[in-house]
Amino acid sequence: MGKLVYKVRPNDYWRIGEHENWFEEMAAKGLHLKKLGKMFATFEKGEPKQMKYRIDISIDRKISKDQLDMYAESGWQYVTRDKLFYVFSSPVEVNAPELHTDSAEQSFTIEKLDQKLMGNAIFTVVATILMIGMLSAIWFLEGTPIYVLIEGWAIQQTILAAFIGYTAYTSLRATLSIRALRKNLMEEKPVNRHATWTKRDRLRSAFVVVFTIFIGLSAAIPVVQLVKNKTITLPRENVDLPIVRLADIERNPHLIREEPEYMNDGVDWGNRYSVKWSPFAPVQYDTDEGGVVLGKEWSDGSGQYSPSVHTKVYQLTLPAMADSLIADLVKWHQYDENKEDYVEVNHPDLDRLVVYEGADTKKIFASKGKGVIFVRYYGDAETNTIVDEIEKKMKLIAGIE
């Protein structure tokens, strides 16, 4: 057996004439077709030969042995197949007759393929439209596309939608091309055996290979997220993480944590931190923490003072995304408040600082370099105290590799 050589094949599998001509050109160079894959054609290196190649279509996906024997008796040897397309070869000197001498008869076989391809095209187009609608809602319904991108919720689904969209496009092209071929055959116009595979086709096929590999690699995203993402009960003592702790804000020795109200999988979900990962924010923390201060009541006399804090921390891959993420976080957490209540504040040690101050609620959005922190605090501590803690945590983010 000679050395095997792999070549990027024309991705338009329905272009019969181009494939036949390409196989003949390869044979003239000493590369003889052995197998057709989705992206590559396998050739065996040997002596250059003048060969003829023909592609036959079998809608039943299998040509009978009797038909193969009949073709062999006529000088055509079966080589390989791709889906419904069977490839046969014959040395030029054998002068084998064409597989199909009646173009109109051949068109009836192609009619069945035309119907099958049309069904596939309709299905993929409908699937693409549905996925685009679903993804549009995820990306743009709240007007926070950068936040969605950073969180990594829809990256894999979007890449999958792009692949399905490309499949729909190729299905439509295949349907139109096969339909045009059938029309030509009905008009007694044979397949163009001299159609060439141009440089542009090679570039397009190479792009398809790269795109398909990229799609395959993207499948690792949810796997990495599954491995890296975890949720743990927040320790009562301080931890060396870039998260704002309730004790650091309250600064009251009588602050305690009550018994958990909701436990699941061994996690106190009222006092927990989640570690997350996405391609555009490989380091993320999401925390909730609550407690009560013994002997202290709310200023309006509504009961025992029970402050809480929610924190989201991001270390971005691209620092240039920080401003857009801040803007989207403000939109996402704005709720019923007026936009004017979210005030941009100049801070000497932060790139950006946006503050909202309500009756008992404070929301702070801050960024520095590739670090972004959002804090929603419920309690009566001063805003400056929270900002000071955020500034300290930004230094920890900068030190994370």
From TrEMBL:
The lineage of its organism: Bacteria, Bacillati, Bacillota, Bacilli, Bacillales. It holds the Pfam family DUF2812. This is DUF2812 domain-containing protein. It comes from Sporosarcina highlanderae. The chain crosses the membrane at residues 121-141, 153-172, 206-227. Keywords: Membrane, Transmembrane, Transmembrane helix.
